[in-house]
Automatic annotation (TrEMBL):
It comes from Marinobacterium zhoushanense. SUPFAM superfamilies: 2Fe-2S ferredoxin-like, Ferredoxin reductase-like, C-terminal NADP-linked domain, Riboflavin synthase domain-like. InterPro entries: 2Fe-2S_ferredoxin-like_sf (IPR036010), 2Fe-2S_ferredoxin-type (IPR001041), 2Fe2S_fd_BS (IPR006058), BenC-like_FAD_NAD-bd (IPR047683), Beta-grasp_dom_sf (IPR012675), Cbr1-like_FAD-bd_dom (IPR008333), FAD-bd_FR_type (IPR017927), Flavoprot_Pyr_Nucl_cyt_Rdtase (IPR001709). This is Toluate 1,2-dioxygenase electron transfer subunit. Residues 2-95 form the 2Fe-2S ferredoxin-type domain. CDD domains: BenDO_FAD_NAD, fer2. The gene is xylZ. Residues 103-205 form the FAD-binding FR-type domain. NCBIfam families: BenC (NF040810). Its cofactor is [2Fe-2S] cluster. Pfam families: FAD_binding_6, Fer2, NAD_binding_1.
């Protein structure tokens, strides 16, 4: 048996005791704490934390959940981490978020399906139960594919709209994709959808300094929810979003971003397209458009959501610049079939 100190980002520390062979995540859950997670088997990366001290064993996870570089830096997946001594683990979430609660199914009605481009669509779910979804801007839910027992994870692209008790999502159209195929070919207004969550430690914290947001593809979704929240609450500090896609047709929701820029003091954004055949004026990857002022000599909070290669590229860019941001929150995803 080993003692593990869980240091949460709000300064709270909780101590748990692990049984022989027990993972940190399971021991925490047994102690009434719920480290943000989804899969429990080393596939999603949601429960990623940092081990500050102590020895541990960890195997059975996939590279998309935790890269070799991250493992070398003692980042851990708590669902796979089995302590071999007393340990200190930093959890990238507040203690309040990690108080154990029972996730319940929420049922809603599909009220909108919009084909935004050949690669992306959005959908909206509304209903009395949707109002009970107490999520933080940036978190996600698992949406059950109608007619199956399969679910797909999607970040909220809006906060709950009080006028119709609805929330929205962005979804990439994947050839042969179970959910995207349903949405593109079968779904109709009035269909019932089941959501479970919320999940994830990728969410907007209190804005205490400049913020840099980096979005790749449909990784734009959580930032739309964050900007929804910022529009309601305001920000005294600069917030800049760089939105990168592969092809011109992947650029979506630009009108929403323009509206946010007009309505939110201190918010600005730019969009870039990686394809050399692009007609978009700003080309390249998001790292090509990060300026020194955006990094503010490290006095910055960085939020990043995109596919694994983008996350690794941004990590490498920041390390090469010798910048240590005050905080760096990221979520990487792969398109689901």
């Amino acid at each position: 048996m080993h003692k593990v100190a869980l240091n949460f980002e709000d300064g709270v520390t909780r101590f748990i005791q692990t049984l022989p062979g027990e993972s940190v995540a399971d021991a925490a859950y047994r102690s009434g704490l719920n480290i943000p997670m989804d899969c429990r088997d080393g596939a999603c990366g949601t429960c990623k934390c940092h081990c500050e001290s102590g020895e541990y064993a960890m195997d059975g996870y996939i590279d998309d959940a935790l890269s070799d570089h991250e493992a070398e830096q003692r980042y851990v997946l708590t669902c796979c981490m089995v302590p071999e001594s007393d340990c200190v683990v930093t959890v990238p979430a507040s203690s309040e978020v990690c108080v154990r609660s029972q996730q319940a199914d929420v049922h809603g009605e599909l009220t909108e399906i919009n084909r935004l481009s050949q690669s992306t669509l959005s959908f909206t779910v509304a209903g009395d139960q949707v109002r009970a979804l107490h999520f933080l801007p940036g978190q996600y839910v698992n949406v059950q594919v109608p007619g199956t027992d399969q679910t797909r994870a999607y970040s909220f692209s809006s906060m709950v709209r009080e006028q119709d008790e609805s929330v929205s999502f962005l979804i990439r159209v994947v050839p042969g994709g179970l959910m995207s195929g349903f949405m593109a070919e079968q779904a109709k207004v009035g269909d019932r959808l089941t959501l479970r969550g919320p999940f994830g430690s990728f969410y907007l914290r209190d804005i205490k300094r400049p913020v840099l947001m980096l979005a790749g593809g449909t990784g734009l979704a959580p930032f739309l929810a964050m900007l929804d929240k910022i529009r309601a609450c305001g920000s005294e500090h600069p917030v800049h979003l760089i939105y990168g896609v592969t092809h011109d047709f992947d650029l979506v929701e630009l009108e929403k971003l323009e509206a946010f820029a007009a309505e939110i003091d201190n918010f600005s954004f730019s969009a870039c397209v990686a394809s050399p055949e692009s007609d978009w004026p700003r080309k390249g990857y998001v790292t090509d458009h990060i300026e020194p002022s955006h990094l503010n000599a490290g006095e910055v909070d960085i939020y990043l959501c995109g596919p694994p290669p983008m996350v690794e590229a941004v990590n490498g860019f920041i390390e090469a610049k010798g910048i240590q941001p005050v905080s760096f929150h990221y979520e990487k995803f792969a398109a689901s079939h």
